[in-house]
Design goal:
The protein is mainly α. It has one domain. The protein is built from 14 helices and five strands. The strands form two sheets. Strands 2-3-4 form a three-stranded antiparallel beta sheet, with helices on one face. Strands 1-5 form a two-stranded antiparallel ribbon. A hairpin with a 4-residue loop joins strand 3 and strand 4. Helix 2 packs antiparallel against helix 12, helix 7 runs antiparallel to helix 13 and helix 10 packs across helix 12.
């Protein structure tokens, strides 16, 4: 990721930029999104309303945004990175005072025609800011304790604000994405060992705080942990979501029941069938083959991103691609693990498939940044 053996990609015309776009990546994003449209149509009982039609419009807007962002020189996005982070932080603070509440959480800003979730923007903002920080930081200072404080603060502050909403899933995604950028930047292995110890200690502290005056999580979040450990303890209450999810996953078998033939979603046994648990609807209708196919599409996107990162000789661009690709990976990996009962339910949607405006637009914005880094990569001498 050194720029010593490379020179900037100068003199790129609009036509050359368009030709340098990773069109295979765009086709993969479109393919996954189309799978999402089909599933939203199915879970609505064969109707474009209320989900599929709106999601198609959002995807169209998102693709335009992605292409515009991709054609803008990565140097501009590098300069803009600190402002993007500060802007996302300002919006997170605004949520505390004027945010709208839904399903017991205060996470959104009402901007008239749209409901914006600033925590989604922070997933990008923290990666951009950390990539810029390590791009200008001298290599011998990367693991120095003093120079570790700014990146840790950049990660922890938004995590605390998002936890307060409360949104444990998004807070964890922000933390994990930031940690990946630090890892790629070359932070010493000693810190990661310390992080593991701190992480285990934190989990123990969180569990021990239950029922005390200094309880860290909300009661419903502890209930999710209990349900994860033993879903059968309350199959019609707290364990209902994950129990029905596992039934839908198993009912699909190898090839599935068939498109629009899933009983769990069509008969409304499956909660949040259009958002967090849409993967189980897909698994029931298309079975193991369909689930594995979707997983393969996600894997191909990651492969293209990491190849682009490996060949990029600009440190900021490489760290940006790696951080945003990791964010995308955590997105779908956490959702799939969640609906299969491998981790507690934390409310993370399936990228490009689950219904949601903010998540869709922000995700395509992040791929616009990845494309910008790819298009404007320096030429190797």
């Amino acid at each position: 990721m050194s720029s010593l053996s490379a020179r900037p990609a100068v003199g790129l015309t609009l036509t050359k930029k368009i030709l340098r776009l990773n069109w295979a990546l765009i086709l993969l994003l479109a393919a996954i999104s189309c799978a999402g449209f089909l599933m939203l149509y199915s879970v609505a009982g064969g109707s474009m309303e209320p989900w599929a039609g709106r999601q198609i419009v959002r995807f169209g807007v998102g693709i335009v945004i992605m292409l515009i962002v991709a054609l803008i020189d990565i140097k501009i996005w590098r300069w803009f990175s600190p402002l993007a982070y500060l802007g996302a932080m300002a919006l997170l603070v605004a949520v505390e005072f004027v945010g709208t509440t839904g399903m017991g959480a205060q996470r959104w800003l009402n901007l008239g025609p749209i409901q914006l979730q600033p925590s989604e923007l922070m997933k990008i903002g923290v990666v951009m800011a950390l990539a810029r920080y390590y791009a200008v930081l001298e290599r011998d200072r990367v693991s120095h304790p003093l120079w570790m404080l700014p990146p840790l603060a950049m990660i922890i502050l938004p995590m605390l604000l998002v936890l307060k909403q409360p949104d444990l899933g998004t807070a964890l995604l922000i933390g994990m994405s930031g940690a990946v950028v630090m890892f790629l930047a070359g932070v010493s292995w000693w810190y990661w060992g310390t992080l593991i110890v701190v992480g285990v200690s934190s989990v123990w502290t969180v569990l021990e705080s239950r029922g005390t005056s200094w309880q860290i999580l909300n009661n419903y979040q502890y209930t999710r942990i209990d349900t994860f450990l033993d879903p059968e303890r309350d199959p019609l209450g707290a364990g209902y979501h994950i129990t029905q999810s596992k039934i839908a996953l198993g009912a699909g078998g190898i090839s599935g029941r068939g498109y629009m033939q899933g009983t769990q979603s069509r008969l409304d046994f499956l909660p949040e069938k259009h958002t967090d648990f849409i993967f189980t609807s897909l698994s029931e209708e298309f079975g193991f083959v369909g689930s594995l196919s979707l997983l393969a599409l996600y894997g191909l996107i990651l492969m293209f991103c990491f190849v682009s990162m490996a060949i990029n000789r600009d440190r900021f661009s490489a760290l940006l691609i790696g951080g945003l690709a990791a964010t995308f990976f955590f997105f779908w990996a956490v959702n799939m693990a969640m609906v299969m009962g491998l981790i507690p339910v934390v409310g993370v949607p399936l990228p490009l498939v689950s219904y949601g405006g903010s998540a869709m637009l922000v995700l395509l914005l992040s791929f616009g940044l990845i494309q910008s880094a790819h298009v404007h990569r320096p030429k190797v001498l």
